[in-house]
């Protein structure tokens, strides 16, 4: 069956922010870390809301991020429309971001979205332009469009069809834990993005210090 290439401008995109995990290398909850005056999670949600509806924040109840998420839920976060944010809990704890991806895609499908832009909470330089460039890479048969830079593929920055949730759930059930495992199993298109900074993520305090120094 051939599928028509969707019109990139008319695709309704949900947003998924993977925000669980342990933040072991950082030593504190990455979602709650300050970036230019706001928690990183709040920043990422605010940027996604420029292109995605709803935005789904996915984390496990025991994850380090829960504190940060609760802070953002409880506090007035400027620029965020809280009615368009949903909070999704990992179905299975401890299987890492791939488990969060399954829960997020299933929730996005329930919300009526055919596609979802997926990213991580630890990407403080993310911008709507990244979503626009990925969206233009979608064709009818594409199950995932992910960003790549000169070094590598970035499955944490991609648009996924929401009907791939069961495929990825099967991978997780089979023991797969790598995000790359998902894109190897799907019909994936890679897009070289014009601004590699959009893809920068911070894992440890030194990453954050370095990025703050160069962003000044
Ligand atoms: N929903 C969900 N998100 C996760 C999970 N594990 C990691 N993430 C998110 O996926 C992104 C990349 O996570 P990693 O840096 O690989 O893992 P981490 O647990 O955050 O950090 P480390 O403990 O230092 O490995 C981050 O935005 C995390 O918040 C998980 O089990 N569930």
UniProtKB/TrEMBL annotation:
It comes from the Bacteria. Its main location: cytoplasm. It is an enzyme of class 2 (transferase). It catalyses: Mo-molybdopterin + GTP + H(+) = Mo-molybdopterin guanine dinucleotide + diphosphate. Its cofactor is Mg(2+). CDD domains: MobA. The N-terminal domain determines nucleotide recognition and specific binding, while the C-terminal domain determines the specific binding to the target protein. Transfers a GMP moiety from GTP to Mo-molybdopterin (Mo-MPT) cofactor (Moco or molybdenum cofactor) to form Mo-molybdopterin guanine dinucleotide (Mo-MGD) cofactor. This is Probable molybdenum cofactor guanylyltransferase.
